[in-house]
Amino acid sequence: MKTASELDVAGQRVLVRSDLNVPLEDGRVTDDGRIRASLPLLQELLARGARVVVVAHLGRPKGAVDPAYSLAPVAARLQELLGQPVRAAQDVVGESAQEMVGALADGQLGLLENVRFEPGETSKDDGERGAFADELAGLADLYIDDAFGAVHRKHASVYDVAQRLPHASGPLVAAEVEVLKRLTENPARPYAVVLGGSKVSDKLKVIEALLPKVDTLLVGGGMCFTFLAAQGHDVGSSLLEADQLDTCRAFLTTGKVVLPVDVIAAAAFSADADHDVVPAEAIPADRMGLDIGPQSVKVFSEALQGARTVFWNGPMGVFEMAPYAEGTRGVAETIASLPDALTVVGGGDSAAAVRALGIDEGRFTHISTGGGASLENLEGKALPGLTVLET
Predict the structure, then answer these.
(1) Is it the case that residue 376 has pLDDT exceeding 90?
(2) Pairing between strand 191-195 and 216-219?
(3) What digits encode the pLDDT tens for the residues 115-155?
(4) Are strands 167-169 and 191-195 parallel, antiparallel or unpaired?
(5) Element (H, E) at 194
(6) Rounded to whole angstroms, how far apart are CA atoms 296 and 262?
(7) Residues catalogued as catalytic
């Protein structure tokens, strides 16, 4: 893949696909991690005299304009972080966008409205998607993809536009590709993977792909209860996928899976609910597990000692609620403290947890900006947004 530094961008209209899919609350950005991650490329292009046109998505508005998913709050935060004006278009390829792009001078930046307001962006019809890509590509002279979190999508702004313009990868995409190679091509051993999140079914393919390659697989989060049930344990009212029990039993036969030995069980899915620590093999019928317990944190920490490669995707509990955050905090601190190890946080909720819990991001080797894309790559899937950059 050609990189952004190899393009002559001075005086050129450069369409940058960024990942600005951030959480909002009352019209304000509540976690600007992805915006901050996009800054190095944008600042470099501006310093080199480019006319930067940023395209990004927010949420899933399903091809229709929805003010709740407007990028206006993102534009405001991006302007604060850049320290210079950010022109914000009121549409994606319409009159407002064209006027904005036409008014840009060298070293100035504009942000298009949410690209998913356009039905052509996500259309599975090649003709409809291509027609929209023609309009989007018409706004620029060059294209750079720096949105790793979207490269597993065959969307117009990710795939089709790159076919229509001279293109390159941004530093975020290039860094992600390099780290994923280290995880998949002869990783340093021992190699441990920590998986959490809600459902086994969401991680089924990545578990199947990774189990033959890893030395240890530690399972927490909501998905651990299906594994515990597969061992014959009572899991109370905890999240359970009954149709995955046989699959989990097969995974357990490898001898590589480490499960919690205690959990924080609550009377309801609430921060205020009555809760206590119970053995993982005996969760009361009227309780649900919402976090791994303190002994489980110790077991997981011991299992991670000496690891040379660690990939972590998915929180250990409902970290957004204070009573159920300590499992995630304990495992994150352990991973961050491993000496001389490649430690990769697989984006999504895991990256959000690191920031929410106040853990220094610099203590990890790499924090991915794309959880879904990372998992699909580890599954062995070809990612459309990467394959098109290689042409």
Answers:
(1) no
(2) parallel
(3) 999 999 999 999 999 999 999 999 999 999 999 989 999 99
(4) unpaired
(5) strand 191-195
(6) 6
(7) 34, 199, 348, 372
CA angle 352, 355, 358 (to 5 degrees): 145
Contacts from 76-83 at CB under 8 Å and sequence distance 24+?
A: 77/29, 77/32, 77/35, 78/20, 78/35, 78/38, 78/54, 78/111, 81/32, 81/35, 81/36, 81/39, 82/39, 82/42, 82/43, 82/46, 82/109
* Gap between the Cα atoms of 391 and 168, Å rounded: 10
**What tokens appear for 126 in the block?**
């090649």
pLDDT digits (tens, 9 = 90+) for 292-312: 999 999 999 999 999 999 999
Contact 237, 286 (CB under 8 A): yes
Residue 239 has pLDDT above 80, yes or no: yes
Helix (H) or strand (E) holding 87: strand 86-88
* 42 touches 81 (CB < 8 A): no
